[in-house]
Each structure stands twice: as structure tokens, then as C-alpha cells.
Amino acid sequence: MNSLFQHVAITAGITVRVAVNFMPEQSRTGAGRWFWVYHIRLENHRDDTVQLRTRHWRITDSNGMVNIVDGEGVVGESPVLSPGQTHDYVSGCELTTHRGTMEGFYTFAHADGTLFEVAIPFFPLAAPAEEAD
């Protein structure tokens, strides 16, 4: 079931799994645009219910350009995860280089409102060699 997910981070009982795929049909490599889709699964292995509040991404291209993305929730949602629950979502990233990386963290809230950070694992964005030109 989890063989799809290549990258995993576990923080404070929350598991974040990531699968990433290059999308040649959505890329315009001749125009210097490469596009990836990533699938994220959040798993609550805690004994309490938590809610995802914010996301923080650090996206770096192969030229070393860094883009920081902060925002509320994920893809318009702020999922509440009871013990044992999971939440999946899919999003995308476009770069002006054929390689890059993503990493970051989510901020979750306990029922009493206290916040804690959960790591998003570092993962590469890499187009196949034939798509690099």
C-alpha cells in the first residue's frame, strides 16, 4: 500500500509520506518550464485528534534559487485527523530548471489550540535526462 510513497518523515506521531512524479505532458521544456505532481499522505498515529493549520515549503531549483511558500491549510483544506486517520492530497510544482528539491513543515494544532510543527520530508524534483534540454 505504501510502496507508492518514496519519502517519509515522522514527527510527534504524525507521519508524512510523499510520492512525486514528473509530468512531461504538463511541462513546456522548450519554454523552460518543468512540472511535477506530488501526492502527500498524512497519518495520525497519536492518541489525540489534531488539525493541520498551515504549511511552509522551501522549494529550491538547480540554480540555487529558493522560493518560500507559506499558507493556510493544504489545497484549500485544514483537515482534522482523529487517531488512526489519514488524509491524502495532490498538488504540483513548476520550476524553470529540470531539477530541484522541496522540503518544509506543517503546523498542526492540538484540541486545546497549542501548535506543533511536523516535518515534510526532503524530496528531489528531477526530470528525466531527455526532458532536460
TrEMBL record:
SUPFAM superfamilies: ApaG-like (SSF110069). InterPro entries: ApaG_domain (IPR007474), ApaG_sf (IPR036767). Residues 8-132 form the ApaG domain. One of its GO terms (biological process) is error-free translesion synthesis. It comes from the Bacteria. PANTHER family: F-BOX ONLY PROTEIN 3, POLYMERASE DELTA-INTERACTING PROTEIN 2. NCBIfam families: PRK05461.1 (NF003967). This is Co2+/Mg2+ efflux protein ApaG. It comes from Aurantiacibacter spongiae.
